UniProtKB/TrEMBL annotation:
Protein name: tRNA modification GTPase MnmE
Key words, A-Z: Cytoplasm, GTP-binding, Hydrolase, Magnesium, Metal-binding, Nucleotide-binding, Potassium, tRNA processing
Domain TrmE-type G per the UniProt entry, residue ranges: 221-382
Highest taxon in the source lineage: Bacteria
Subcellular localization, as worded in the UniProt entry: Cytoplasm
Amino acid sequence: MKNINYNNLDTIIAQVTPYGRGGVGIIRISGNKVKYISNKILNKIIEPRIANYLFFKDDKNNILDKGIAILFNKPNSFTGEDILELHCHGNQISLILLMKYINNKFHTRFAKPGEFSYRAFLNKKINLIQAESIMELINSNSEYEVKSSINSLNGNLFLYIKNIFKKIINIRTYIETNIDFSEDEIDHISTSEISNKLKKIISIIKNVCYESNLGKISQYGIKIVILGKPNSGKSTIFNLITKKKSSIVTNIPGTTRDIIKENIYINGIPIQIIDTAGLRKSYNIIEKIGIERTKKEIKEADHLLLIIDSNISKKYDIKKTFFNIYNKINKNKITIIKNKIDIKKKKPKIKKDKKGYNIIKMSALTGNGIDILFKHLEKILYFNKDLSKILINNKRHIKILKKTLKYLKQSKFLLDAGFYIDIVADKLNLAQNEINKINGNFTTQDLLKNIFSKFCIGK
Ligand SMILES: Nc1nc2c(c(=O)[nH]1)N(C=O)[C@@H](CNc1ccc(C(=O)N[C@@H](CCC(=O)O)C(=O)O)cc1)CN2
Ligand SMILES: Nc1nc2c(ncn2[C@@H]2O[C@H](COP(=O)(O)OP(=O)(O)OP(=O)(O)O)[C@@H](O)[C@H]2O)c(=O)[nH]1
Ligand SMILES: [K+]
């Protein structure tokens, strides 16, 4: 499909409901010929934006279907062009027959994937971010992805991008007005002020880029790694969370030699949960490999669950044995589970320790306390990071933001190192161009076509 000519704004038609059998199947027609087609097929001039229950007929007065027709007059439609929607009975054959008839009779054609949205974009009905988020929404596989795409559909991401853009412009203006290019020497006060401003933008983007690592969730889920001493109950927790018996549970310490992964959803959040080998010094070569891999998993994890047997004496300080991660790690990145509370018949609960780390007392064996754990994880993984506000799932956006970040860092570096301000400004310019690509202000035709062609048919 090399010759997609999106600029040729002829009238296009597509089935917008899924292929197959259904209660209702909707056909959408967009373009200049719509009114003519509507009059012919419906045998009537219908009022726009009103549902009309009518026969759909061919030119020989044969009934093609009887359904609901809605006309949207340009520019007040999804695409900004005239649109006719035919809500037919959901039979795939009759839908195709109807579309074929229209194509043959009125010289319309089937829409390419994303072509309706592309027209909506060209006619400034939606911005590029919204178009992409509509597609993200359609392709969502979890409540989590649905929420994030609806969020960017609502314009939150657009506002965020605009804010970064404004801040960059702000610095460029500041440079142009406050620095005298005719002098070789740069005023030190202004330089440090610019440097601070740059630092701020960098941190704003960094925050989002960090969260956007969660963007990989569509493929793998948020990575939760289970850690703990042998026999603390890691495999039992893993089985409890995944509700499967895939991890071998035994009372022989060191049974879990390798890493077991499972993809699950916790309250709609896609999660990849990983059970690790028992962490301890081992001369067993197989176990050693497992431990090396555990270290790697820890590095890549979004969240750690550290399992401790709550009945084992405290003087043996487990927390110290975990590569000192306990003290180094962000308090929200780790949850300590004091397991096996059933033995001393304690009640499950959640609390914070003196250092502010989250501790959950529960029993993996009986499942008592699992709801507390799930609720906590949901809070930590979803709400604490404020993903409900800005979450970037879109690979294209992440890539652009990373590039923007790179240019901003370079420009700060050059500034701090005392390079000429125009070199700094050049880098800023590059950053600005990057950010412009997200909302489609600085996007080539090829790129646009590429983006929209990944949409589904009828969108
Ligand atoms: N029947 C139907 N349902 C649908 C769609 C559709 O195309 N048809 N959509 C397709 O994605 C979504 C809704 N998107 C739409 C976006 C804009 C307009 C529209 O008519 N816009 C006009 C008027 C706005 C107004 O009255 O406030 C405009 O923008 O000028 C319609 C649907 C989801 N539901
Ligand atoms: N009473 C009680 N026993 C538990 C609990 N959780 C796990 N166990 C038992 O503790 C033993 C070890 O559990 P595992 O889940 O295999 O422990 P692990 O941490 O995966 O062990 P390794 O494979 O050695 O790393 C098993 O006999 C479990 O049945 C619990 O909450 N209460
Ligand atoms: K074990």
